[in-house]
Records
---
Amino acid sequence: MYTLGIDIGSTTSKCVILSDGKDIVAKSLIPFGTGTKGPTQAFDSVLSEAGLSESDISFIMATGYGRTTFPQMNGEMSELSCHGKGVFFTHPDCRTIIDIGGQDAKVISLSESGSIANFVMNDKCAAGTGRFLDVMAGILMIGVEELETYALRSSSPVSISSTCTVFAESEVISQLSKDVNKDDLVAGICASVASRTAALAKRAGIKKEVYMSGGVAQNGGVRAALAKELGVEVRYAKDAQYMGALGAAIAGYEKA
Ligand code: ADP
């Protein structure tokens, strides 16, 4: 039996097809999120990669910010539940998930059985989310995927004092005009996201093992800064950006 999970995020659309609730058959990611053609393209692309058609899928579960907008879905589930299911499936030793996406950040505590014991989230402010990093990468004229290379070269991160993305943007522009070392500036930007997320994590409580999910998990600069702030190893969930879609495919299997 095939089930499909679609995670319609603010910046990207991700799909995963699972066979019998356990084997990943195909996955797709389109860098356009809710309100665009991204979800349909991700859906078509994952079916084509799997060599399947829509009628072969027993259950389509949607999650993410735009989860209610996908006409082909058979059901929808919250991102918290789906990230919990996805990360616990891939890493059963996980007890804390730190998920930083394009416009929010969540910290989820899992019980021994993988159910959600507690969570704290920031969906009110761009600081501490992927959006902050996207804006800063734009000012620095580099790709978000390059941020970690710069950050990990720095030995003396610049302190970014503004807590608001708009003010921090001006602060970074001012630092750039003073010819501050770019590695140190990027390390400071990653540390700023880490410090906001660490505050959330401390509210939720940190239990080992700690894994990051969501797109920002791919940024080793943020992972390293978070580990330093929290004093624990912060692991990188395999296929971190697909964890919501994977969890949705698992939930679809449970429903079907
Ligand atoms: P959403 O589900 O809200 O669309 P995602 O979990 O897909 O969010 O994460 C999107 C964020 O991930 C982007 O805002 C970007 O900052 C970050 N990101 C995406 N790809 C990469 C990458 N290769 N390296 C580092 N960060 C990335």
Note: Residues 9-12, 33, 64, 101-103, 130-131, 133-134, 144-145, 214-216, 218-219, 241 surround adenosine-5'-diphosphate (CB under 6 Å).
---
Amino acid sequence: MSLKLFNTMGKTLQEFKPIHEGFVGFYGCGPTVYNYAHIGNLRAYVFLDILDRTLTYLGYDIKHVMNITDVGHLTGDNDDGEDKMKKSAAERHQSVLEVAKFYTDAFMKDIDALNIRHPDVICKATDHIPEMIELIKKIEANGHTYMAGGNLYYDISTYPDYAKLANLNMEELQAGAGKRKVVVVDENKRNPGDFVLWFTKSKFEDQAMTWDSPWGRGYPGWHIECSAMSMKYLGKHFDIHTGGIDHVPVHHTNEIAQSEGSFTEEDRKEGPWVNYWLHNDFLILEGGKMSKSSGNFITLQTKLPSEKGYCLTDKGYEPLDYRYFLLAGHYRKPLVFSFNGMDSAKNSRKALVNKVKSILDASNGKAADLASLSPKAKEYLDAFKADLENDLSTPQALSRVQLAVKDTELKPEEALALVQNMDSVLALSLVEEAKKAAAPQGDSHEGDPEAAEIDALVIQRTEAKKAKDFATADKIRNDLAARGIVIIDTPTGPTWKRQ
Ligand code: AMP
Ligand code: ZN
């Protein structure tokens, strides 16, 4: 089999063919660093990490580029609202650069906790203003722009393929209706769907960060940064571009119009700017949409004032429980966040780590050589590879490792080799976590049908004790005792056995 990816451009599953054999260049839209990343944002980066690790697993050399948006992103994607960075700086009584640094650091901590590999290039918008200006000059020279009210706009009616990526209806767009209904009317725009390439003083008199440009002192629109930086680091034609599905109708549509709008005839003959567009679907809260600007969101590990939201680590989950929860869903399907789902991810991950621990013990930590695996073990590897090649199907890949660790026909050394190999993509730190796991005390829970449920109760009791909620902790202990189960507190954490 070969790698197949669902391309939003054309909306089909397509065989992946890189531009240069053996090499993949790809760009993922990075965070706007005006607040902490919420767990929905982090879904986008775990998906990107799976793409990154899968390409490496399949033997490609990769160049993964990600931007950090530290200027130009307004609260509305359609050039309306306030500047997100400026608003946050005013609220925090800090400079825009301080805010950007603070939240970039927090973002890096989150991605590290989720075992997300750092992209090869992480580039800040504010470090690339000259590249953006040069690109805008080319777009202007190609006749796609107009000045109005002090801003330089992109005229979408000059770009025939504008509606292609998102299947938009051009007539509706020009009327400000349909999927991209215009709420705030900008009188300067020729078409409601036009967007700003360069803002001047006309939008915000006291904009903190401004630069000189041929169109006046000002700052860039949000979309231009991704066009400019991706082309700087990956060239005029590259393989894959990613982001959340919310980016399809506006941000990525505008990026294409800009990038291909800057092309010469020669460039156009060489092919499109990006060959494959990949988009992750949303993480949805049962109570409705989660957004950074609403003040109602869930972070991975950063404590928030309670009126704003909460973090998963405070609820007793580890960051890797969340990674597991995400991998158990396919990136192109909406995923509903729930504590039940998180509990089941946590328990399944724990059970998997325990299995790996027994494999480590049985194999004395010695993994078999991949080149000399038995046919049975090789089948697992082939199936795992096929799962990933099938549009990065992590739910299948995850169940593949689950099956392999339970397969008693495999030698422990082989099982360990499979775990190590598969975990280079799943990145759940299975072996490291198994080494950390407390040595089993008392009875082994192998084959106990209630083990997962009891494990979960023991964890709840530990969390309750941590939160000084001794009434709940005692109740759990007593309820278990009534069922003939004793909890044993050991220096490495609690375990349990049946009496
Ligand atoms: P932002 O920092 O707002 O530019 O968003 C960073 C990334 O998170 C983008 O790729 C968004 O498309 C993505 N994103 C935002 N909200 C969600 C969500 N609830 N679920 C999944 N991805 C999201
Ligand atoms: Zn972008």
Note: The radius of gyration is 26 Å.
